[in-house]
## 1
Amino acid sequence: MRTPHNERLTPDIADAPKARIASEPERRCVISGETAPRELLVRLAVSPEGLVLPDAQEKAPGRGAWIGADKAALEAAIASGKLKAGLSRAFKTGALEIPATLPQMVEDALRRVVLDRLGLELRVGKLILGTQRIAETARAGGVALLCHAADASEDGRKKLDQAWRVGRETEGSGERGVTLPLDRDALSVALGRDNVVHLALADDAAAARVLKPLTRLMHFLGHTVPATDGCAIP
């Protein structure tokens, strides 16, 4: 069954559809106290010296704490002391150092995870590059997820979106690819290719692997995030 990937969820973690998140693990945000699917939250960890750092890959040892706030809300929580109060409760210590640059550190870490994931999909042959190749593959129904750089032209997006709809048999639906919070320079450097403006994932499993970190990044930046009903997030 074909499912559009361009349906959106609000960035408010309280509004995530219950049917979609029923089977997904949840975590509690230390700032708001609300619970939400883990894919929408960012894990923070503490170094042995008490420095609070982003753990975007969720691999740091020891106790972690989760935040579901977007970047602007995180900045406000740092300024008001609300973040430190929440982290002190979570880590059971007040001896914490929260960098003033933590919001940017989180954003940079999340961007790196997305770009690294795209690089891995390229190496295993699941990432499709090149406008003509994407268009041909999309029309043949071989594209699970279509993405555009933030600075892609509207004309270029429309042409590939149309090809994607044809291949997915969703003509007339208005379905569109996902506009990434990454420009062509960031994509080109990360993938080692010139002028990467559009990219596509070849199957649902690859799309799910990319959507997992992409959803988290877009949520943190306050963007609406792509629905993942068509490709279950692992």
## 2
Amino acid sequence: MDQATQADLIRVAHLLADTARPVTLAHFRTAALVADTKALSHFDPVTIADRAAEQAMRDVLARERPYDGIFGEEYGQTPGTSGLTWVLDPIDGTRGYISGTPTWGVLIAVGDADGPVYGIIDQPYIGERFAGGFGQADVTGPMGTAPLATRAPRGLDQAILLSTFPEIGTPAQMAAFQAVSRQVRLTRYGMDCYGYALLAAGQVDLVIEAGLNAYDVQAPIAVIEAAGGIVTDWCGAPVHAGGQVLAAANADIHAAALKILRSHP
């Protein structure tokens, strides 16, 4: 991919994040916010902000990159002809959003059949934007702009592990997660996509989750890998299509966690 294309993808990715910010903030922590559920068997919330933010980003792409494909959580797939697809999650962490916690974020990734090449994790309320790809990785927020770099290797017994839910996937997957959790120094929950941002920023060592979709993970993959980390499935394979996710700060901590996950079929 030539430098001009790379520069344009970066430009459009940030334009999408700029567009989604005011749409999501217009409804955040408001008394009038109502959450519908997309599933009958369990609470899978969606709000007017999810739908409006994705539509706003789709409108930008229709104008700026009309030949690219789009895969969004709320409105599905729109084919393109360029070989590139934008993967959008307008509010990752809607449960956190409707609870008023600032752990949700806007996820934006662009990539090809081999996976994401550039991604953004944007937290509008805090005003932090984590971006990575094409040899760049940085965060811009209240403290200015700084490079992103994942943590140096350390023993698993000194590691910090994050996840969104205490309940991880199937009973077998939960047992595998708990086996890792018992070995680390600290496990924290309820982080939504902000956990992946903290990994890229060098604050924690591991994020382990299951049952993710492509729109949940492609932006974190791009940002974390650009910051020096590793993101795979629980067998060590690529995970840009979603599923079981193991995000690690470095090869050593990834190998240690992967060994435990693999030992629990």
## 3
Amino acid sequence: MNDSLRGDALTASVIDIARRAGDAILSVYKRDFDVEQKADDSPLTEADLASHRIIVDSLRALTPEIPVLSEESVDIAWETRRGWERYWLVDPLDGTREFVKRNGEFTVNIALIEGDRSVLGVVQTPVTGDLYYARHGHGAFRQERPGEEPQRLQTRQAAAPLTIAGSRSHGSERQRELLTRLGEHELIARGSSLKFCLVARGEADLYLRAGPTSEWDTAAAHCVLEAAGGDVRTLSGEPLRYNRKDSLLNPEFIAVGDADIDWAARLAS
């Protein structure tokens, strides 16, 4: 990587890309649009594709030596991916169901993966302009509007009753059963990677996902949460990692603000 694009300069460039992608999404959001169904029955819109093109083209121009894996270009074979030491992992529009519902709870997610860890993450919310970003070892931040001074993020210590961020569109009976093991709690419903962001900014204690997600759904916000003091682990207690297998599906996981608690043990009780 070009030395001039390391650290803060690289982060600033990715923030700019995310904001431009968010603007493209908004241009579709404000008018009528068609909704297609992908092979897995998830929705696809013109906004997904417009954001994808901006992000992928911009990242390739910014760092031509680093490959890009996007939700809308997932046909890269494992034989190729397994040799990557560093790559961009992108969800051009996380929460397309929320986009279709027009509730504003969707995001642009861009992450840089090194080895099997997310080391740079940017999460942008097109409707509000809210943006979260982090770089491993350098803290996590929230910028509510372009040009405003970013605020450093810090997770909170967990205390009963827990505040739990839950999926707006993907709840399940298994998830509800697991949450009962954590005791009394309040559930806040959010779409997309905004659930991670609630935990990162200390407004929720955890987000538990007992259904399928893909690696591009979590990587950017994972970096933000970890840099804010939190952690993301599988339900068996292992750290959530990336690009370790042929499948791009994540295992079930719990994203927490208070990393000193053995959450896996509490869920197993």
## 4
Amino acid sequence: MSKNPSSKPIEIKISTVVAVSAILHTSDLSILDAAMQAMTGGASDYFDNEFAILDVTSCETLPTAIEWPALISLFKSYSLNPVAVRGAPAQMEEAILASGLSIDTLVQPRRPAEEAAPVVVVPEPAPAPAPAAPAAPVAPAAAPAAMIIDTPVRAGQRIYARGADLVVNAIVNPGAELIADGSIHVYAPLRGRALAGASGNNEARIFTLSMEAELVSIAGTYRTFESGLPQDLAKKPAQVRLAGDRIDVLSIRV
């Protein structure tokens, strides 16, 4: 008798997959290679084999054809795994799909109400006004959502707080990864990777009682610490924030 409690040969369930956006302003491979080399500083584990969406929306001069296999190989050489393309014109979709990539389609927002077809309503005679009822008390606003982790985060473990802040009350070991759409709070040593504002929130921050991170990111902007942290920040309370295109690490006085 099979030890598997399910008789189904396969099950499909919803899973959250986090992917970084590689926003391309050019499709020139030599220019992109030089830019990636400058960004990573030659660090082989800068991206750690993350999934990537190639966003060509901002390409100033998009050619009629792109060498997708060569582009995929370029990003894979920097430990990024392209899985989809965003913003490509319809005539490119066949070549994109043939290269093994998917088409990432952004959901279009609904039309504003004023653009909808007008509806004519004939008002009925207004009834006599009823006595005013006492105002109902206003319920307090709901507190922002947060995911709370009370156990150590092990090497190789990835935790994602979707649409929320992430609070960790234990050590984050080297090789572990924290991801949050909001801010990240670590009330213990942060020795792994922390990526806040994963959905594009530039105001998100990272806080820790002992700054020892391998990599930090705010809204997709990264900073690594191969050469170590300054003495006034290493293993001390600190916060990480985004200032324009720069990641700042600041001390917290306690």
